[in-house]
Each structure stands twice: as structure tokens, then as C-alpha cells.
């Protein structure tokens, strides 16, 4: 059994590296129309989108109000946007510049930091690519902890600025992710006393494990037939996503289909991941989401994928379990679950499921009609 998040991904299929910026016509390899990929581009743009929540207490009537708001967003959408989150505009700008600088390097330079076949960190296609017969219109770069090793490969003399920005971003996101986790759990009536693994000896939130994923989506000559990042749920507790001011992120909502999450300058998107779905014993669904591309604009996103401390076994919180609500999932560590995701992808949650709930609720991804590719 893998013990760290870096041990938990299986080798993905070898792939030619396309320089998407220079392609003038969509190659067959990237054309997502074939029926075997269950591809759908419909977008219900007339529906309301995910709620925007103000994290500044002074702008809300009282703290409970935030919790109600968050609880409602988690139940209904599995996602929300946040404003007044205390991440400075400067840092958001800096990380965008760092990402753009990285992805605009020549391909042979980026490949020096290529993710190894069984590794987690480095440059390459999204890890879930191996589950699809078509390639995605995106490039990714994954960082876990210090970026210095890969940064040295990319800029042998000049890697300091990149590392400084990444480390600052990771530090600030870690704090924000902890705060969001307690707010979300608070909306379920859970306090620090109920989650021993998340609290240190002085009552402080224990540092979780995390990965930072930079995603680059070049403008695409045929966006209607391409896919930036195929539909998936994140294998996290929660994910904090920064998108530049170009839309592309969509969330799936039962009954309404794919809904665009409009970029709001300075706002961040919060996604509920599979591990929170497990912790909440199925109350809060992990959100199915994807990124589409467009003809004219370059899009960049930065995802902070937040999980529990390494080795911690996550299971439905005992306060949420009783004879009417039996535990729906077995305990898993983050690295074990990442291994499960790498093997079963959209069936990963079901594969750790213990029983079918009494109210007949099923995993979002098991609903008929939801197409994950
Ligand atoms: C900590 C994580 C979470 C990972 C795997 C590992 C590092 C990279 C993450 C992503 C980022 C892009 C979507 C995803 C689906 C993918 O392909 O790579 C994510 C995956 C997951 O959430 O399962
Ligand atoms: O680019 C986006 O908006 C989505 C990125 C994403 O879902 C991820 O990195 O997990
Ligand atoms: Fe995601």
C-alpha cells in the first residue's frame, strides 16, 4: 500500500507531447466527438451558478449566517466562490505570472521537468488522461511541497523567484484551506473536538498534505470539439481554485447539466472533494467539474488540492453516524484513495463504499445520464 501521496499513482500511457500553441487545426487525437468518450458540450448558461460567499464576518449578520450559506452551497452544488478570503491580489497576480512563465517555456525545456511515469510531480498531461481515448487541450504542472527540484531543471540559474512565489502561495493556501475545512464541517455541526486527527496538542489545525496543480489551456482552433480537462471529481477534502479572468470551469448539477462558473476578479472557487464526501457520510457531494476551452483566449488555473495529514485514515465522522445513518464508506488514507482513483477513476468512491444508504441516495457520478467524459 502506498504511504505518501507521491507513491500512489500508476504509470499512465505514454503520450506524444503536442505544442498546443502552434497547432492551427484540431488533430483527430484531440477531437472529442466519438461516442466512446461520452462527450457532451451542452452548457446550460441560463441557470444560476454556484453561490458567492463573503468570508469577511463584518459583512455578514453573524457567523451562523456564513455557516448556513456554506452548508446550503455544499449540499446543493458541492462548490462555491469566496470573496474577502485574505489572499492578496498581488499573490494571485504573482502566481498567474509564474504559471504563464512556466508554460511559455519551449517544449524541450518543459520536458526536462516531465513527470516520471509513476510519479506525481512535474510537467505533463492530466493524470486522468489515461482513462480517455482522446487527448485533452491542456498542459499541467504538479507541485508537492518544495518546487525547487523541478524549478532547477526548468531555469538552472534563475529559479528563485518562481520558488518564492510558489512557496508563499502554498503557505497562504494551507491556512485558508484549514479555515474553510472548519467552516464546512461547522456547517454540519462538527467542531474541533470531533476531529481528533485534524487538531494538534495546542488546539492548532494540523498541517494537511497538499498538491498544487497549474493548468494551462491555450486558445483552441476548434473549441466545440475539444476538451480542456475532462469531467472528474477531486480526490481531496477540498480544492481551492484560482482561474484567470477567462471562463472555462463548469460544474455539473443534477437536473441542470453543465453550469459555467463565471470568473469574478479576486474570487476563488472552492470544490468539495471525495474525502469530504466520505467525512460527511454522503451529506455533501463532491462536485463533478471540467474545464472547456475557447477560440481566442489563453486560460490558466491554479488548483490547491488539500487533503488530510499523511497516514490519517479518513472515515465518516462518528457524529454523523447513527442507526438510521450507517457509515457509507470505509476508512481510507489519502494516498490509498489516490491509488484507488488512479485505478478506478470515476468508480473510486463506489469502490470504497460500504452499503447503499436508506434514503436511496447514490454517488453523483453513478447517476444515470451523467457523462464523465
Ligand atoms: C493530490 C492529487 C490529486 C490529483 C492527483 C494528485 C496530484 C494531481 C491532482 C490532479 C489535478 C488535476 C485533476 C486530477 C483529477 C488529476 O488528474 O490530477 C487531480 C487528481 C485527483 O484529484 O485525483
Ligand atoms: O481549470 C479548471 O478550472 C479546473 C481545474 C481542475 O479541476 C483541477 O485542477 O483539478
Ligand atoms: Fe478538479
From TrEMBL:
GO terms for molecular function: gibberellin 3-beta-dioxygenase activity; L-ascorbic acid binding; metal ion binding. Pfam families: 2OG-FeII_Oxy, DIOX_N. Its cofactor is L-ascorbate. Its EC number is 1.14.11.15. Pathway: Plant hormone biosynthesis; gibberellin biosynthesis; Hormone biosynthesis. It comes from the Eukaryota. One of its GO terms (biological process) is coumarin biosynthetic process. Residues 205-308 form the Fe2OG dioxygenase domain. Keywords: Dioxygenase, Iron, Metal-binding, Oxidoreductase, Vitamin C. Gene3D superfamilies: B-lactam Antibiotic, Isopenicillin N Synthase, Chain. Belongs to the iron/ascorbate-dependent oxidoreductase family. GA3OX subfamily. This is gibberellin 3beta-dioxygenase. It comes from Solanum lycopersicum. The lineage of its organism: Eukaryota, Viridiplantae, Streptophyta, Embryophyta, Tracheophyta.
